[in-house]
């Protein structure tokens, strides 16, 4: 078996049908599909039964919902393919040759990802490509993925099964970025397919939409990232420093007390200094993008010694 498509599912049967149909019409057939179901009912199971016989489909019901991303890890643990393709249930393949295109490049790297197309609930469609600006930076400095997830959601990736990294179940918001960071640190390479092979559904019900700029989510996760991966690799690059600056600014975090309010009493000095720098500037000025960027650069240069090796 070359490719295992792992689908963590939760109730959204109309989306799941769309995904399974897109798999059924693929010209590439050396695959298996693993559905790990967190739903409280049997609606997902009924849909899976409709597709039995069209391809190899293994269905697993979680009697107790695992949640995101534990359900991702569970599905992957059941895969037997040489390559793992995690697909969210509201995403789907762009055309019948998409999986064949992924398979065609499996000799290039252990991490493969493609361009993709965002499909918003209001009907807006947006194609997303890897810009040349980022192409070398993400292997040289994988930490800049914290600044911008230029790889995309897990559905656009294909990962070799020899990579044993798991998604960190403490990070429902930045889980994919942190996962990519570890893989790039391990492999030092990737292969990018400059063609949209996956359609990505964007809705307000997604975990990522519900976590954006929520300090009760963003700050604990940010703290875990800093503790897990280290302050220097995550903050020495100005693009990552800028991402933290914008995050704190947009959440209106301007005191150390606010940082500690979310359960962490030992924030690194560079983050505390950044918050203090934000506190010195009127909010009206911080809301001016160009001015905020200048202030961020000054703050970075002042605190750079705290993140240098």
Automatic annotation (TrEMBL):
InterPro entries: Glyco_trans_2-like, Nucleotide-diphossugar_trans. It holds the Pfam family Glycos_transf_2. Keywords: Transferase. CDD domains: Glyco_tranf_GTA_type (cd00761). Residues 4-143 form the Glycosyltransferase 2-like domain. One of its GO terms (molecular function) is hexosyltransferase activity. This is Glycosyltransferase family 2 protein. It comes from Ilyomonas limi.
């Amino acid at each position: 078996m070359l490719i295992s498509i792992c689908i963590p599912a939760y109730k959204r049967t109309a989306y799941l049908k769309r995904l399974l149909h897109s798999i059924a019409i693929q010209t590439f057939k050396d695959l298996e599909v693993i559905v790990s179901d967190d739903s409280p009912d049997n609606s997902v199971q009924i849909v899976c039964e409709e597709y039995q016989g069209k391809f190899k489909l293994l269905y697993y019901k979680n009697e107790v919902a695992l949640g995101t991303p534990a359900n991702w890890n569970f599905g992957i643990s059941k895969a037997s393919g040489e390559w793992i393709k995690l697909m969210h249930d509201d995403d789907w393949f762009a055309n019948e040759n998409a999986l064949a295109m992924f398979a065609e490049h499996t000799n290039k790297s252990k991490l493969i990802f493609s361009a993709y197309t965002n499909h918003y609930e209001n009907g807006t469609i947006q194609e997303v490509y890897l810009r040349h600006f980022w192409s070398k930076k993400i292997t040289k400095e994988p930490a800049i993925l914290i600044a911008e997830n230029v790889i995309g959601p897990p559905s656009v990736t294909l990962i070799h099964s020899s990579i044993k990294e798991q998604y960190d179940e403490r990070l429902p918001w930045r889980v994919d970025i942190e996962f990519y960071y570890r893989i790039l640190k391990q492999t030092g390479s990737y292969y990018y397919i400059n063609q949209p092979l996956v359609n990505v559904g964007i809705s307000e019900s997604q975990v990522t939409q519900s976590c954006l700029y929520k300090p009760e989510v963003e700050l604990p996760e940010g703290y875990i990232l800093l503790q897990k991966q280290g302050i220097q690799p995550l903050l020495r690059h100005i693009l990552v420093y800028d991402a933290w600056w914008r995050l704190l600014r947009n959440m209106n975090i301007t005191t150390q007390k606010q940082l500690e309010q979310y359960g962490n009493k030992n924030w690194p000095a560079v983050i505390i200094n950044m918050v203090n720098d934000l506190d010195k500037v009127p909010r009206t000025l911080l809301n001016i993008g160009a001015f905020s960027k200048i202030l961020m650069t000054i703050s970075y240069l002042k605190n750079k010694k705290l993140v240098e090796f």
